[in-house]
């Protein structure tokens, strides 16, 4: 949101007078919120390096709870609040054709370097429909409107474009009841992972060992480059697309078949 929106949100948080505030980004926000107990950069630095020097970011973040007697261990059942309205919304989608399973495609991402091409997503969607006789649902937030439109319009078959029409709860419920989720390294990936949905995650410059899916049935598809994962915001060769362009439809389709 805008700077004014962020200030408003910060003031709302501060007014709640929390007992404990933990800053996952190691910044000063917990101190500024006025909580009685604060875990930011100074409070957690030693513990994080002692407990979790490497590994998935989920465990590195959860390590910050250890000073307060909370040890999450190595297995966590994530909770995603799903309202009755979310379930009704998903029921309406699934009931349009009860004989066909849903495959959810999430082609958006905050960075262009994390976006697999819309043309490739459209071709993949058609191949999934032909192979598994499924329905394709395209999802994302309002920032993904254009890329979702491109995928939907680029398909030979018909895909249902729900971009901007789902809440986190309804997206989680849809993913939980889907045959497969195909997504970039983006927020929907982590929603799908939280509900243990089957996932094919397409990665570019990001380290999948730190940010990849934690679902029991998941595959990561990434480019075969000597420089990755670089975790850079700009590619040294292609500033607009980067290494993710080297991932073929066949490679993603193969990963989908391994799960399905």
Detailed description of the structure:
By secondary structure, the protein is an alpha/beta fold. It is 39% helix and 12% strand. It is built from 11 helices and 8 strands. It has helices at 3-15, 29-32, 41-51, 57-62, 84-94, 118-132, 145-154, 168-176, 187-194, 208-211, 249-259; strands spanning 20-22, 37-39, 102-106, 135-138, 159-161, 180-184, 199-202, 218-221. It has a 6-stranded parallel sheet, sandwiched between helices. Helix 5 packs across helix 8, helix 6 runs parallel beside helix 11 and helix 8 packs across helix 9.
SSE topology:
Elements: H1 3-15, E1 20-22, H2 29-32, E2 37-39, H3 41-51, H4 57-62, H5 84-94, E3 102-106, H6 118-132, E4 135-138, H7 145-154, E5 159-161, H8 168-176, E6 180-184, H9 187-194, E7 199-202, H10 208-211, E8 218-221, H11 249-259
Parallel strand pairs: 1-2, 3-4, 3-6, 4-5, 6-7, 7-8
Helix pairs in contact: 5-8, 6-7, 6-11, 8-9
